């Protein structure tokens, strides 16, 4: 699949495309036949639309949403980072090195008091200590870091608020009654 295009606009998709995106975002394992039923199109037309949405960069991919505790990853934290330099070189080096750390699940370059916000998931407090004192502190240009332990997750990432084409407010997403965290596989591999 191609990456998102910078000039993609909502003018290139219609309400059926948005319904497909909403359904896939809720349940990436939906069969093409069920997706076609939900959007009231023939399976072949639905499959063609899904492939077009993938090619145009609206769909980045499909994946399973894993349960960290089942994998022994019991500690989550938010780490705020300040860099010593704000030129392109130090920023690129920091981002490259952070991408290589599997414990970092999210890295956001932000405005405000800090330069970066990292979400990290680790086995235990010792693993967190090693990540902070050995891995993150060793990245050149890191001037300051502050760590906050996550006590609980009040809302999981369940996708983006999709715009509605017939109103100026986002379309509502229906929760998947089957699962809180559906696995995601591509319906593009199915014909019906």
Summing up helix and strand content along with how strands pair, one would put the structural category as alpha+beta
Read across the widest sheet, the strand sequence of neighbours is 2-3-1-4
Helical content, roughly? 25-40%
Order of helices and strands: HHHEHEEHE
Which CATH C-level class of the largest domain is it? Answer: Alpha Beta
Q: Give the low-pLDDT segments.
A: 1-8, 179-185
Fourth-level CATH superfamily of the largest domain: Lrp/AsnC effector binding domain/regulation of amino acid metabolism (RAM) domain
Radius of gyration: 20 Å
CATH topology-level name of the largest domain = Alpha-Beta Plaits
In whole angstroms, how far apart are the ends?
21 Å
* Overall CATH architecture of the largest domain: 2-Layer Sandwich
Number of helices: 5
Oligomeric category: single chain
Please indicate the percent range of residues in DSSP E strands (runs of 2 or more): 15-25%
Our count of domains comes out at: 2
| DSSP strand count | 4
User: What is the arithmetic mean of pLDDT?
Assistant: 86
What gross morphology would you assign? elongated
Biggest sheet details? 4 strands, antiparallel
């Amino acid at each position: 699949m191609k990456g998102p295009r910078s000039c993609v606009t909502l003018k290139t998709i219609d309400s059926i495309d948005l319904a497909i995106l909403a359904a896939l975002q809720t349940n990436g394992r939906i069969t093409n036949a069920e997706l076609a039923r939900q959007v009231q199109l023939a399976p072949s037309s639905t499959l063609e639309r899904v492939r077009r949405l993938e090619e145009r960069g609206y769909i980045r991919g499909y994946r399973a949403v894993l349960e960290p505790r089942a994998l022994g990853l019991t500690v989550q934290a938010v780490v705020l980072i300040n860099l010593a330099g704000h030129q392109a070189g130090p920023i690129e080096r920091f981002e490259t090195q952070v991408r290589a750390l599997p414990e970092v699940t999210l890295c956001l370059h932000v405005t405000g008091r800090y330069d970066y916000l990292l979400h990290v998931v680790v086995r235990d407090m010792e693993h967190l200590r090693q990540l902070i004192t050995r891995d993150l502190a060793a990245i050149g240009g890191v001037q300051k870091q502050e760590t906050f332990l996550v006590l609980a997750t009040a809302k999981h990432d369940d996708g983006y608020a999709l715009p509605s084409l017939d109103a100026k407010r986002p379309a509502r997403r229906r929760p998947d009654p089957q699962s809180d965290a559906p696995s995601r596989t591509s319906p593009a591999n199915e014909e019906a």
